[in-house]
Structures are given as structure tokens and as C-alpha cells.
Inverse folding.
């Protein structure tokens, strides 16, 4: 295996970095949080004091090196401090999705043998108490928000502030032990354990070392020139590797500021107030944002709507070229400046992206039209390709080399190979240590030389040297006639339309492709209101004939686009339906990171798939659903199945 770069001994653990930041950037803002409508700020020096008090309190509770500490809550400085404090004492933080149902949380806490849990409020405490018999090793639960918990049994239940107070009171007694543990921290020590989304089964615990995370942070920050003057908005789920690398590892490495929104509901408003310079969002976020923009424009007056479309058409023509520093005529540049004053600037301010210097999207492919829309506004939005097992980064797009159809070149320190089967393999300083308690899966994923199988199919573009990802390798198949089947390629084209939220394409081993579609309730609901169409539920709107007509027009437009791709022209959709319910993580149909669980969907909705392929016009289905409070129920519907026009491939070939 290639020789790995060595980290400076003074920067090879998170506690050492925090000490460096408190000295070097002591008075600079480290964390911000909006609470009760007011932004509160902690400097790096203040953060070190908060973290050390918490770590001393952990020692008082008996936290040992190697103990696992589950953390569940929204993005708040307290939870980031909890991760750092756990690392101070040599324990391992294990972030958990805060919206995980009790069963999902019980599995993670039991699997990692968590001894401590740090949670946000009464709701999370109640969830822990509900599953405590399934997690016999859990010794202590610490909560941040005291409301509603005064009368609970506090034998093993503790307030966050109380733990810190105890730590401060016992400073002289515990400080030598804390200093000893910090000094003993090594690059190979585990710094965090993150659970995969579990698209094909139970989530796996991905063990990451200090070296994995910090070397990846170092390389990725240098790639984009990130520094202590930058600001990032921490709103991604803390259980996701992206949040840890952006809001913890990179923040600690550079000393930039991490701002936490007041709540998920106020995230967009808080984004505008903070104006981050560094921003990451999955494609779904950018798709939703564009949908809201287009909805507002439909509601605007004729003059505003015409002005918007006029200048956006110009921006799409020259905006990306200006962003990449390419030559643009003086008249086009002037027209763009006028558009920036009248349209792009106000729009960027409304979106909260007027200060974004570096923006990324990843997780799944983003529609090229959506990607180009944001770049045309002057947002330096780029794509990266990665996964949990790589500490996110496998490939990135350098400035000036940004394309909608590729995911860039190997990130610094990363090697990428394409197997004969088309599967993408990589190795890097960020490669995970192991899957916790799962040596078989570890061996299946990572070989003795450190090469990791991504499970994705792709190839390097011969013209640019950039990587192109086709689909998940396990999802790429063959149609009955031998044509390639790549569902994501078609699904991403469909999701470009604002009124399509999610879709699942079927066709592997079959004569043709079919699709399930979820409408976007916000976009379609707005359309219904403008057209005086009454509806009482998602199900009623999804079955409306005019909605079906609109979705059919989108499917047929996508078919024309797919037909132009020689490799994937066989993936045109012949029949489709609009599902009677939104695909939901609580129902097991999506992961917590909103990835489709194809196997679950194929099993759960088999009767609908059968109907699409046997020519049925209507199919009745009854489906179990999970309500927000965890109760189970069922909904039923008779769905209309429709044919969609396709472009005969031989006709297309003749035309060419």
C-alpha cells in the first residue's frame, strides 16, 4: 500500500486541535446558535472551557477509555462539545439520528454497547426509557433541555449543565487524569463511530480513527482554501458522516465558525441571517429550493415573471462561464451585471447564498438543469463523490473544472481504480478501520491493501479525466433484450420537475421499464390552489386526473431525453403510477438519509409492480403506515395505472 502522510504530533487528535484553536484563534467565533430568536456566540477559548468542564464531569460519572457515548438531538453546540469531551476522556461518540424510531435507536445503542447517552429533551429521554430494557449496558442518560423532566427519577438521569458544574467543582481532583488521557491520545485511536444508512439491511457501525478524519479534513480544506474566516451552517443530521467532517473535523482543523439554526423549520431563515461562506446540501435540498423559487415566480405578477425568465435565460448562457473565469463578451457581461442587480442578487440574498464561496452537493446525482441553475446565479456549486467509509471524500471538482455529468478527480491523497466489472474502488488516508463487530463485512468491503469497494459503477471520462458514476453497481442490470438498465439515470431526470418529489424505476430482467412516482405536495398543492382545485389529502391530490396528466407529460419528456442516450435508451418508462402515499423512512421505505430502499419497496408494493407489468388499468392496495407518534395504521386506495409514449429506438437511429 502507498505510504501514508504523517500528521504533526501536535495536531493528531481533536483535543490537541482544540487546544491549538483556543490559543491561536482564542477570540474568534467558534460556535453560534440561535435560540429564542437571538444568536449566541462562543469563542474558541470559551469552547475549550465548556468542553473541559464537560469532560471532567464525564470522569466523575466513571466514563472510561473506549466507552461508547450515544448522542441524539438537533444540531447544537452542546452536542458537538459532547463529542469533543468524549474524545478528551478517550471514549467514542456515536451520533444517532434524532428522528429514529425507538426500534432503530435500540438497535444502534445495543449493537455498540452504549454506556452513556446524551440527548436533547424530554422526547428523546422518553425514547431512551422506552428501550432501556433492550440496552442493558446503558448506565447514564444526560439531557440538555430541562423542560418537563423535573419529576423524573434522576438516579441515572442528569442535566447537561449539572455535569459541567460537577466537572468545574472537581477540577483539581480530576484534571491530572484528564491531562493524562489527552496526552495518551494517538492517531490510530477511534474518534467516532458512524452508522451507515442501511439501504440493504441493518446499519453497520463504521469505525473512524483520528488519522482518518483529520488527514481527510487537512487535505479537503487545502483543496478549497478553507480557513478560520469561513462560516458553515450545521443543519445536516449529526449521525451523518457529512456533518462530522464539515462541522467537527474541518472546523477543528481550520478554526472556522459553525453556526447552528434554531430548528429545522427555521433553517432557511437562519441560513439567510448567517450567510455562510462554505455550504453543503444534498441534491434534494437544492431541488426543493428551486421548487419554492418557481412556485413564488408563478404567483408573481406578469412583469416580475417576465423579467425573471429573461435574465435567468441569460444567466444560464453566460453565468457558468463567468464563474469559471472564461472569456465572455463585454455586452454579455454588462447584461449579466444588470441581471445581478435586478434578479440574481436579490434571489441569492433570499436563498441565503450571497456569501457562499465554496458550495458542494453529494449523496446522489443532481439533475444537470438544477446544477446549472445555481451555478448560473454565480454560486460556486460543485459536486463531490464519497461515502461514510471514506470520511466523505473520494473525488472532488476543482475550480474551473466543474461539470454537471461528472463528480471530479480523485481528492488529495485518494487513489481510484475501476474494476473490469465497472465497479469503483478507492483507497486513501480516510479509509475506515472496520465495521464494528462485523469482520465478514469488513473483509468484503476492504481488502488487505486497503482498497475499498464502493458498490457503485462508473468510469473515467477520457476527455477530462473526471469520474462519472452510472448507478449503484447492484442496481445496474440488463433488460430482457440485453440493453443496460440504470434506474438512477432516469429517476434523476424525473426529479428535475418541481412536482416530482421521488420516483422508483423498475425493469431489471424485464422487457421494459415502469415507475412509481411521488408528487411534491408543496408544488402540486400550490398548483391546485391557483387552479381552484379542492383536495383534502395527499392521496386525493395524487389521484386527480389533471395531476396524472401533468406527470404523464413529464414521463414522456424524459423518455425523449433518455432515447437520445445510446447506452441507456432502453430505460424509457412504458407505464407508471402515482403512489397513494409518500415514501417514508418511518415506514422503512427510505433510509434516514432519504435513500430509496429498493428491496423493501419491491416487496411491499409487489401487487402494484405486478399490475404495471400485466396491463391492469387499476389496482387496489392497502398499506401499513407509521404515524409520527409511532402508532401503526393503514391506508387503502385504488390506483390508476397509465401508459406513457416511448420513442422507438430504431426510429431514433434512422433519424440520426
Amino acid at each position: 500500500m502507498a505510504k501514508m502522510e504523517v500528521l504533526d504530533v501536535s495536531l493528531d487528535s481533536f483535543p490537541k486541535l482544540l487546544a491549538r484553536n483556543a490559543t491561536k484563534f482564542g477570540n474568534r467565533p467558534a460556535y453560534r446558535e440561535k435560540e429564542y430568536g437571538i444568536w449566541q456566540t462562543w469563542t474558541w477559548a470559551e469552547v475549550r472551557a465548556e468542553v473541559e468542564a464537560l469532560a471532567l464531569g464525564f470522569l466523575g460519572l466513571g466514563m472510561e477509555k473506549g466507552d461508547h457515548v450515544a448522542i441524539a438531538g438537533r444540531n447544537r453546540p452542546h452536542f458537538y462539545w459532547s463529542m469533543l469531551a468524549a474524545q478528551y476522556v478517550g471514549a467514542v461518540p456515536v451520533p444517532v439520528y434524532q428522528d429514529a424510531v425507538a426500534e432503530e435507536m435500540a438497535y444502534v445503542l445495543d449493537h455498540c454497547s452504549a454506556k452513556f447517552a446524551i440527548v436533547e429533551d424530554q422526547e428523546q429521554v422518553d425514547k431512551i426509557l422506552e428501550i432501556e430494557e433492550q440496552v442493558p449496558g446503558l448506565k447514564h442518560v444526560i439531557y440538555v433541555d430541562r423542560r418537563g423532566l423535573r419529576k423524573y427519577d434522576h438516579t441515572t438521569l442528569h442535566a447537561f449543565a449539572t455535569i459541567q458544574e460537577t466537572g468545574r467543582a472537581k477540577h483539581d481532583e480530576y484534571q491530572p487524569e484528564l491531562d493524562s488521557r489527552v496526552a495518551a491520545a494517538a492517531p490510530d485511536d477511534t474518534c467516532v463511530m458512524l452508522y451507515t444508512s442501511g439501504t440493504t439491511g441493518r446499519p453497520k457501525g463504521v469505525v473512524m480513527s483520528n488519522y482518518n478524519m483529520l488527514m481527510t479534513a487537512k487535505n479537503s480544506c487545502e483543496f478549497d482554501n478553507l480557513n478560520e474566516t469561513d462560516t458553515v451552517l450545521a443543519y445536516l443530521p449529526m449521525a451523518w458522516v457529512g456533518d462530522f467532517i464539515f462541522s467537527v473535523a474541518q472546523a477543528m482543523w481550520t478554526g472556522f465558525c459553525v453556526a447552528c439554526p434554531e430548528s429545522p423549520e427555521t433553517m432557511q431563515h437562519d441560513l439567510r441571517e448567517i450567510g455562510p461562506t462554505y455550504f453543503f446540501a444534498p441534491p434534494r435540498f437544492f431541488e426543493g429550493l428551486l421548487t419554492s423559487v418557481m412556485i413564488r415566480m408563478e404567483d408573481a405578477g406578469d412583469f416580475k415573471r417576465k423579467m425573471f425568465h429573461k435574465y435567468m435565460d441569460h444567466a444560464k448562457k453566460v453565468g457558468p462561464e463567468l464563474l469559471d473565469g472564461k472569456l465572455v463578451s463585454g455586452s454579455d457581461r454588462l447584461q449579466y451585471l444588470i441581471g445581478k442587480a435586478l434578479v440574481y442578487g436579490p434571489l441569492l440574498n433570499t436563498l441565503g447564498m450571497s456569501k457562499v464561496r465554496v458550495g458542494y452537493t453529494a449523496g446522489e446525482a443532481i439533475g444537470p438543469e438544477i446544477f446549472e441553475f445555481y451555478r448560473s446565479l454565480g454560486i460556486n456549486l460543485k459536486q463531490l463523490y464519497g461515502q461514510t467509509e471514506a470520511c466523505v471524500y473520494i473525488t472532488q471538482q476543482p475550480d474551473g473544472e466543474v461539470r454537471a455529468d461528472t463528480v471530479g478527480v480523485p481528492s488529495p491523497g485518494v487513489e481510484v481504480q475501476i474494476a473490469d466489472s465497472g465497479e469503483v474502488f478507492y483507497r486513501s488516508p480516510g479509509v475506515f478501520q472496520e465495521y464494528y463487530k462485523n469482520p465478514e463485512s469488513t473483509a468484503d468491503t476492504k481488502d488487505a491493501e486497503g482498497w475499498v469497494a464502493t458498490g457503485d459503477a462508473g468510469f473515467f471520462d477520457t476527455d477530462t479525466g473526471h469520474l462519472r458514476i452510472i448507478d449503484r453497481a447492484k442496481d445496474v442490470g440488463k433488460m430482457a433484450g440485453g440493453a443496460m438498465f440504470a434506474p438512477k439515470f432516469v429517476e434523476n431526470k424525473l426529479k428535475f420537475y418541481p412536482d416530482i418529489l421521488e420516483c422508483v424505476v423498475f425493469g431489471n430482467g424485464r422487457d421494459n421499464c415502469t415507475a412509481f412516482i411521488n408528487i411534491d405536495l408543496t408544488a402540486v398543492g400550490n398548483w391546485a390552489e391557483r387552479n381552484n382545485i379542492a383536495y383534502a389529502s395527499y392521496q386525493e391530490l395524487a389521484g386527480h386526473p389533471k395531476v396524472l396528466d401533468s406527470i404523464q407529460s413529464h414521463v414522456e419528456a424524459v423518455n425523449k431525453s433518455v432515447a437520445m442516450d445510446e447506452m441507456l435508451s432502453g430505460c424509457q418508462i412504458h407505464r407508471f403510477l402515482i403512489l397513494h402515499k409518500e415514501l417514508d423512512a418511518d415506514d422503512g421505505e427510505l433510509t434516514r438519509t432519504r435513500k430509496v430502499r429498493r428491496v423493501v419497496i419491491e416487496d411491499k408494493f409487489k401487487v402494484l409492480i405486478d399490475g404495471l407489468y400485466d396491463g391492469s388499468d387499476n389496482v387496489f392496495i392497502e398499506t401499513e403506515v407509521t404515524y409520527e407518534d409511532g402508532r401503526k395504521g393503514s391506508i387503502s386506495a385504488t390506483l390508476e395505472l397509465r401508459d406513457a409514449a416511448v420513442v422507438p429506438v430504431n426510429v431514433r437511429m434512422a433519424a440520426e
Remarks:
- The longest strand covers residues 452-460.
- Residues 198 and 367 are 24 Å apart (CA to CA).
- The domain at 26-185+230-276 is CATH 3.40.50.12780 (Rossmann fold).
- The first helix runs from residue 14 to 24.
